[in-house]
Amino acid sequence: MSRIRPHTRGSRRLAAAGVTAATAALLAAGLSPAAHADGRPTRATAVENAASALLAHAANLGLTSAQGTSVRDVVVDRDGTQHVRYDRTYHRLPVLGGDFVVHLAPNGAYRSANRATRNPISLASVVPEVSGPRAADLAVNALRAVNLGERLKSVRAKPELVVDALHGTPKLAWRTNAVGQDSLGNPVARTVLTDARTGAQIDAWDSIETATGDGKSLYSGTVPLETTQSGSSYQLKDPTRGNTYTGDAENKTDLCFFGICFVRAPATLFTDADNHWGTGSNADRSSAAVDAQYGTNETWDYYKNVHGRSGIAGDGKGSYNRVHYGSSYNNAFWDDSCFCMTYGDGDGTTFGPLVALDVAGHEMTHGVTSKTAALTYSGESGGLNEATSDILGTMVEWYANSPSDPGDYLIGEEIVKPGFGKPALRFMDKPSKDGNSADYWSSSVGNLDVHYSSGVANHFAYLLAEGSGAKTINGVNYDSPTYNGSTVTGIGRDKVGKIWYRALTVYMTSSTNYKGARTATLSAAKDLYGAGSTEYNAVAAAWSAVNVN
């Protein structure tokens, strides 16, 4: 079995975190130092201010000379308040759970910070006792164990030495990505965290999370598309949204390992002679492409028009889509390595093509999460990661206001087939209707698969938007209970989307759990609507109604 050798990566050291070194951080983050016309601090200014705060408040942030920091994201509020998010290294090793957010006043003065963990980071040694190849073998075994009955092929593993501060006392660990292909050639992947001293598994999680013309889509009727004319034909590429485009994967799959692709499934750009795309049926391969492009457009517009975010990474750059991926592939996923969305066609029995609007919004929101809070994809943080995609993906569906696919609080209702046995993948009003998801928090909820532990936050979001009890919305019947028997009055989905997005981008960190999510959303509600406001009190009541107190 061939393996790629382990590696480490470094970042800017604390000793160089002053204003002069911050200029280098601006370039690394792609930030312009130009001033806003209204006098509001720029993102570049915020990074400069935060760099000074790191020096002045190093002890409070748990920073030492052995550590480095790098800017991941910047948010500047309308009133000039600044929030700068950092990743942390220790002796040049990435620190899982080392991320933090620095909050600054409009004048740049330090206010406070949110840290993923407050445990001091200090190790006796950064030399592993368990070798990288041994960690790779353990990860491959873990991948095979969760794919029992499958004859996996092209299996590879790539270990990376890290400091794990997410699981109690910080320790040296191997973070190993194991990938391969199943019997149909579709990708499987798992990330395994191994104690670098004992070889014990610390944690593991799946790492495939799980257009002007018009087009006839499979799920959303006839939709408008912004396209690009090329000679006498048109390309399914949108110049108004960062040149997002959709291509045909030709039922092929990737053979990629940790950003290095030996074989990459194509994304052959769809073209059309008359700028009228698809027929609304699977017989025309461009019909699924219409759905994918439309989903990308609506997701882009939602984040841009509602939250002021330009593109998934907030940098104005477009992503791309691949449809018809793999053979009867029952999945869709966002991949940071290609900055793209990939959609399978489904097996036709349990799922149809997975290009529905809420699926697109869900998966691309994983990209937003990765560029902001980067919620760890396991335990309660993993449930919140999945719930973030369900919640904001649902907001995309409501925002689109498609007559053919009206807004609802069902996840994936368009793609399921009779063989699935349920009318949707998940149900936000009462998550347990899927037979697996949690309605309420308990001490064991973090042990569930992240798609099921997400139920607690999904239930919270529904209650906060619509309130408890029985009601019919857009022709769908809901009946949402509460843990404590309380009656919750909703504040509307638009406010819920704004509160959750601000909590995600300003207050949550990689290790945020349900208790932390309550705190983060209360902080967001306070920022947006004021302490003691109806919205603030509703957030508290909705969390209590799902037993997060």
Sum this structure up briefly.
This protein is an alpha+beta fold and 549 residues long. Helix content is 30%, strand content 25%. The termini are far apart.
Question: How does this model look, in words?
Answer:
The chain is α+β, with helices and mostly antiparallel strands and 549 residues long. The protein is built from 12 helices and 28 strands. The chain has helices at 19-29, 43-56, 58-61, 132-145, 285-307, 357-371, 379-400, 450-453, 455-466, 493-507, 514-529, 534-545; strands at residues 12-13, 67-76, 82-90, 93-96, 100-104, 110-115, 153-164, 171-181, 187-195, 201-206, 213-216, 222-225, 228-230, 233-235, 237-238, 244-248, 255-257, 260-263, 268-269, 271-272, 276-277, 320-325, 332-335, 340-344, 410-411, 426-427, 469-473, 476-480. The strands form 7 sheets. Strands 1, 2, 3, 4, 5, 6, 7, 8, 9 and 10 form a 10-stranded mixed sheet that branches. The longest helix is centred in the middle third of the chain and has 23 residues, at 285-307. The chain is globular. The chain starts with 11 loop residues before the first strand and ends with a helix. The model is unreliable at 1-34 (pLDDT under 50).
List keywords for this structure.
549 residues; alpha+beta; 10-stranded mixed β-sheet; 6-stranded mixed β-sheet; 12 helices; 25% strand; disordered N terminus
